[in-house]
Amino acid sequence: MNIQQLEYVIAVDDCRHFAQAAAVCHVTQPTLSMMIQKLEDELNVKIFDRDKHPVEPTPTGKQIIAQARVSVRYFRQLKEMVMQERTLTGGSFTLGVIPTIASYLAPILLHETSRAPHEIELVLKEGTTSQLVQDILHGKIDGGVMASPLNHPELVEHPLYYEKFYAYVSPKDPLHKEKKIDLKKINIHNVWLLEEEHCLRGQVSRLCQLKQEAKQQHFEPTRYQSGSMDTLMNIVDYNGGITIIPEMHAMGIPEDRQENLREFAHVIAVREVSIVVSKDYVREALLQQVINMIRAIVPKSMQNPELKKFIVAL
């Protein structure tokens, strides 16, 4: 049983003629007759008395038709509601953000949304990628800003921007004298990393290991694992070594520490940042509004889709 069959039944009841009902439904008469016959077979009952002219519903058919009209009316109301939701540009949107993005994106986003009136009530929540994915799937948040691609079958990703990776090098490290850092020269045992739960750690590890394979070095965790990039940078300042940070975070570093930033030689490495929603998310217009808000505060140079080919896998 499906809505289309119920609509055909109602059309026949209105027209009391199969050919006229088929014309109203924009289908051929054999198609309409076959679909109604299938419904009658499924219910094991005759809905229409075809021997009468014009066609009349059977006593049981009258009850079925009455219920069909209610069902179709509610179905159409549901479709109208969904269409309204799709085009609605205002309302509340709960947005999750992973920590390595929230540290710089959240303050700017909150500042910009407070400067001018908006139809959107934006609620920000910080969490790891795995936490946000579960919150999206369980309907606890509307979407999440995180590194991608995740390639999750139940999620849809909308790329926002691409940010390059930079090395933050201690003046105590021999590589500080280099204008650009050759990844092959990095001693990965001197790289300070985020905790295991952060996807950025995996990208940094992969980035370093790809260039260390020739040396057959085995990657081992550092002595201290932090949940904060600012903490890692402070550790580098006082203890030496290197950490690797994304471009947006690098842009917020004070001028007196900018001299410790280095690009990588012979390689472009970026991470893709996307807003991720459930594949069943309906409020498309509201989502586009949030996407536009985020893109408005991200440098245009970082929104070039050509950078996608330089993504470091998660």
Describe the model.
This protein has 314 residues and is an alpha/beta fold. It folds into three domains: 82 residues, Orthogonal Bundle (Arc Repressor Mutant, subunit A); 87 residues, Periplasmic binding protein-like II (D-Maltodextrin-Binding Protein, domain 2), CATH 3.40.190; 109 residues, D-Maltodextrin-Binding Protein, domain 2, CATH 3.40.190.10. 43% of the residues lie in helices and 20% in strands. It has ten helices and twelve strands. Strands 3, 4, 5, 6, 7, 10, 11 and 12 form an eight-stranded mixed sheet that branches. A two-stranded antiparallel sheet has the order 1-2. A two-stranded parallel sheet has the order 8-9. Helix 1 crosses helix 4. The longest helix has 29 residues. The chain is elongated, with a radius of gyration of 30 Å. The two termini are 45 Å apart.
